[in-house]
């Protein structure tokens, strides 16, 4: 059964700064270079890494086509809001990101026990195995709500890998898994304290180390066959855009039934119907050729039961 995990509050449009590939299998080739990628194409990029088809070709040189029958068993996409970039010690490649990014999804029932309310988060951080004992808080406080939001997101990353450790069958089945996480704790800290505050600097340093470990843990849990990407988002704006048409555009109408020069509406069943009709026609043509050949070379005296019965009756008379 495939695992789908998404923890954004709502589908959102964001203006991002960079896409960093933390982990990737050896057979998944990410080329290093300064090639910008549109945020709208990130779902297509994730789909291509998993071997799925996309509606439009992704003409982006950062990802090279890998083996057809060797694909990652999981893809983990983490979006971090409120930061230009993170000082990640080790990564496969990093690319500038532009335009908008959309996230949406659903969670597997295994992850329903993760804390979501403020009361559950406070209780989880006070239990054994809390991340509060893993690193020094420095200027961060477990009593401030903004600090608590950031710490809860760090705790969720830790709990996801812990759950997969206990439910290893999810990482060992034949179905690909997709994880999509959105972290907004840094954005709240920057609004409350400012980006020059010690709280923001400490949180940025903590999150970079936590994400690095999270990527390594997910990579190992899937047997070194998982891709982990981190998207950093500085601002959370969705500027309005308007599509325009050139006055020099050709007046040739591709769809006679539409006065606006619109193409025919594409039907996703076209490929299936085309293959059915094509191979059915080929089979029928071959059948007609075979029947015609056998009729042309048929001996009426031996191959036809009508002539055979007639000859026997004549001999008896």
TrEMBL record:
Example GO BP: positive regulation of Wnt signaling pathway
Superkingdom: Eukaryota
UniProt-recorded Gene Ontology molecular function terms: signaling receptor activity
Pfam families xrefs: Renin_r, RENR_N
Subcellular localization: Cell projection, Dendritic spine membrane; Cytoplasmic vesicle, Autophagosome membrane; Cytoplasmic vesicle, Clathrin-coated vesicle membrane; Cytoplasmic vesicle, Secretory vesicle, Synaptic vesicle membrane
Domain Renin receptor-like C-terminal transmembrane spanning segment residues, every copy: 242-317
TM spans (from-to): 270-296
Keywords from the UniProt entry: Cell membrane, Cleavage on pair of basic residues, Endoplasmic reticulum, Membrane, Receptor, Signal, Transmembrane, Transmembrane helix
Official protein name in the record: Renin receptor
Role according to the record: Multifunctional protein which functions as a renin, prorenin cellular receptor and is involved in the assembly of the lysosomal proton-transporting V-type ATPase (V-ATPase) and the acidification of the endo-lysosomal system. May mediate renin-dependent cellular responses by activating ERK1 and ERK2. By increasing the catalytic efficiency of renin in AGT/angiotensinogen conversion to angiotensin I, may also play a role in the renin-angiotensin system (RAS).
GO CC entries: autophagosome membrane; clathrin-coated vesicle membrane; dendritic spine membrane; endoplasmic reticulum membrane; external side of plasma membrane; lysosomal membrane; synaptic vesicle membrane
Domain Renin receptor N-terminal, residue spans: 99-234
Subunit structure: Interacts with renin. Accessory component of the multisubunit proton-transporting vacuolar (V)-ATPase protein pump. Interacts (via N-terminus) with ATP6AP1 (via N-terminus). Interacts with ATP6V0D1; ATP6V0D1 is a V-ATPase complex subunit and the interaction promotes V-ATPase complex assembly. Interacts with TMEM9; TMEM9 is a V-ATPase assembly regulator and the interaction induces the interaction with ATP6V0D1. Interacts with VMA21 (via N-terminus); VMA21 is a V-ATPase accessory component.
Record membrane topology: Single-pass type I membrane protein
């Amino acid at each position: 059964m495939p695992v789908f995990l998404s923890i954004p509050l709502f589908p959102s449009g964001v203006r991002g700064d960079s896409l960093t590939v933390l982990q990737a299998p050896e057979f998944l080739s990410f080329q290093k270079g300064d090639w910008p990628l549109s945020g709208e194409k990130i779902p297509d990029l994730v789909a291509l890494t998993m071997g799925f088809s996309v509606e439009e070709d992704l003409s982006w040189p950062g990802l090279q086509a890998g083996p057809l029958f060797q694909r990652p068993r999981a893809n983990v996409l983490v979006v971090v809001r409120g930061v230009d970039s993170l000082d990640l010690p080790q990564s496969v490649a990093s690319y500038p990101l532009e335009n908008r990014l959309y996230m949406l999804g659903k969670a597997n029932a295994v992850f329903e026990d993760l804390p979501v309310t403020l009361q559950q988060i406070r209780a989880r951080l006070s239990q054994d195995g809390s991340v509060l004992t893993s690193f020094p808080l420095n200027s961060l406080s477990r009593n401030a709500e903004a600090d608590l939001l950031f710490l809860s997101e760090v705790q969720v990353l830790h709990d996801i890998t812990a759950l997969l450790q206990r439910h290893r069958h999810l990482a060992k089945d034949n179905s690909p898994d997709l994880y999509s996480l959105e972290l907004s704790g840094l954005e709240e800290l920057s609004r409350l304290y400012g980006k020059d505050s010690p709280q923001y600097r400490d949180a940025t340093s903590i999150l970079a180390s936590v994400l690095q470990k999270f990527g390594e843990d997910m990579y190992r849990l899937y047997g070194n066959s998982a891709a982990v990407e981190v998207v950093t988002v500085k601002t959370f704006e969705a500027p309005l855009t308007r599509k325009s048409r050139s006055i020099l555009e050709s007046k040739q109408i591709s769809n006679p039934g539409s006065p606006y020069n619109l193409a025919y509406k594409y039907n996703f069943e076209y490929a299936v119907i085309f293959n059915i009709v094509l191979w059915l026609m080929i089979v029928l043509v071959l059948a007609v050729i075979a029947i015609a050949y056998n009729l042309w070379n048929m001996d009426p005296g031996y191959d036809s039961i009508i002539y055979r019965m007639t000859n026997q009756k004549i001999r008896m008379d």
